[in-house]
Design a protein that fits this description.
single chain, 3-stranded antiparallel beta sheet, 33% strand, 165 residues, alpha+beta
């Protein structure tokens, strides 16, 4: 079992999610993306709406997990087998100075790294316990539970992410 060697990439509860206006809906980008759904996607443009001041984080968790443009090369370096599909976001109201970021949908097959001792409540982990034998040698890992899509970064990878601010 692994206690402290991994960092779980999770949504900041204070960060407001963007609202899909066109092209970024769950029919195209489901929360759980399997390989067939990933292969069916092309790079695309999507429109978003945001309440108040428009600030977008470097990681999106809705409708699915995506990483900001400045992390795409880093994630590829940390997991060379990872593939990506790009999404250029435009603000639907076309407000002046609204950000137009590029996000990347990463594809990394899920590993069976969740230990049987993991405690769940309604398909989500209350206490996540990981399998050292499966995660050994990885820097990024993608795991799945019935109600949770989990992305983990090794301490080495987390330090690389944090160095980018």
């Amino acid at each position: 079992m692994v206690e402290t060697e991994w960092c779980w990439l999770r949504r900041d509860p204070e960060m407001l999610p963007i609202r899909n206006e066109q092209g970024l809906d769950r029919s195209n980008y489901p929360y759980f993306i399997d390989e067939a759904a990933f292969r069916a996607l092309d790079d695309r443009v999507a429109f978003y709406a945001h309440q108040g001041v428009v600030t977008l984080g470097d990681f999106l968790f809705e409708p699915t997990f995506m990483i900001g443009d400045r992390y795409q090369q880093l994630f590829h370096f940390l997991a060379p087998e990872m593939e990506f599909r790009g999404v250029q976001l435009y603000e639907a109201k076309k407000r002046e100075k609204a950000p137009m970021p590029i996000f990347w949908l990463p594809w990394l097959p899920c590993t069976d790294g969740i230990h049987a001792d993991t405690r769940l409540r309604q398909g989500k982990p209350v206490e996540l316990v990981l399998r050292r034998d499966v995660l050994q040698g990885r820097r990024l890992a993608h795991l799945r539970l019935p109600a949770e899509d989990i992305w983990l970064a090794s301490l080495e990878a987390a330090e690389c992410i944090l160095r980018r601010g």
